[in-house]
Amino acid sequence: MNSNGEYEFDDQNESSLWEKLGFLKKSRSFATKSIHMDRKFEEFESSSTLSLINLTSTYKLFEAHNPTSYQYSRFGNPTRNNLEKCLASLENSKYAVTYASGLGAQTAIISTLKKGEKIVVDFDMNFDSIRLFKNFTGNMAMELEFVDFSDLDALKNALKENTKLVWMETPSSRTMKVLDIRKISDFVHENLPTARVVVDNTILSSYLQRPLEFGADVVVYSINKYVHGYSDVVMGSIAVNDDKVHEKLKYHQGAMGIIPSPFDCYMVNKSLKTLSLRMDHHMKVSYKIAKWLEKQPQIEVVLHPALQSHPKHDVACQQSHGHSGVFAFKLKNPENVENFLKNLKIFLKVESIGGFESFMRRAEKVEGIEVDGNLINVSIGLEDADDLIEDIQQALDGRSEGSNGDKLEFY
Ligand SMILES: *Cc1c(COP(=O)(O)O)cnc(C)c1O
């Protein structure tokens, strides 16, 4: 109620929850930019409110040797350019470049290195990225070392003259490990000015964290997770401020042929317009469920950066505007994990995060890297919070086999 005794809709309430938890203030104008930037960049004269889609693979040259005009779609496409400008505006970066997948974006970055040069990676990383690093850097005669970036001495030992990339995923998709982007970036730049810091920001998106603002050099995304969120596109992207790094990465996009299709670019550009709305829901529901889970007698631990109990809650607050729908937890009795997962009715057991559908599964094992196989990874989608809680409750209670009038029967 305001001072005149009238009820007012308080649209700041939700963002102030995150501020009260200690996170950075909500990014101003993010939603407005996501909706209107598109029109600003579009290269065609048109009164349509959505930017146009251009599927052309090859272009007519009006003058020979004009390097700025479109020639062949692998090297440039107006729909793709438009999306890249929109992504850069949301990241507050000078440039964004899109690729055929998140791993395609990572391949483009790795390929900036030469034979004998070294990549240092924080070991708490998603399975697919680890497989890419392990299987291909050796073939390209590069050096690779996994370390724990929360140990700066270990990181310092790994930084050799030939180290060119220092790579981390924060928060990590597996264990919700949070690394201090500012501290690590400054440390690397002081000790080895020629090395570049790469942050995989897939778990939060530019709505919740913008690593370039904390000293990182390159940000990498699997776009199909939160940024797109509609589970029907595979795409990756990078964001950078440095002109030279951008030039190389842009060249690799076309010369290595790791491009997304113009149609997919159009789809992603459209879904940017609901990114802040979707994230607000993922954030709210995942926090609610994490808080609820913490109180259940069958649960040993909940790993969610917005919880006070998270060991790096303060670091998450310093560098992000809140936390998304991805988190992890452990049951007290590891023998119950299989049954618990089997009993779930709404949560899918598929390999996907950041979409509209909720999912849960055991943390993936990675060869040579210790993972607690009893850890359960969760991605909260866009369903109703109470239905998700009810589903987890019945799976914890092991009630699912009987037909006790349960209304959550979807599969
Ligand atoms: C999915 C994922 C990737 C790989 O991206 P693709 O688009 O599947 O190639 C990289 N990093 C993180 C954190 C991911 O979740």
From TrEMBL:
Keywords: Amino-acid biosynthesis, Cysteine biosynthesis, Pyridoxal phosphate. GO terms for biological process: cysteine biosynthetic process via cystathionine; transsulfuration. The modification N6-(pyridoxal phosphate)lysine is found at residue 225. Its cofactor is pyridoxal 5'-phosphate. Pathway: Amino-acid biosynthesis; L-cysteine biosynthesis; L-cysteine from L-homocysteine and L-serine: step 2/2. One of its GO terms (cellular component) is cytoplasm. This is cystathionine gamma-lyase. Its EC number is 4.4.1.1. It comes from the Eukaryota. It comes from Chironomus riparius. Belongs to the trans-sulfuration enzymes family. GO terms for molecular function: cystathionine gamma-lyase activity; pyridoxal phosphate binding.
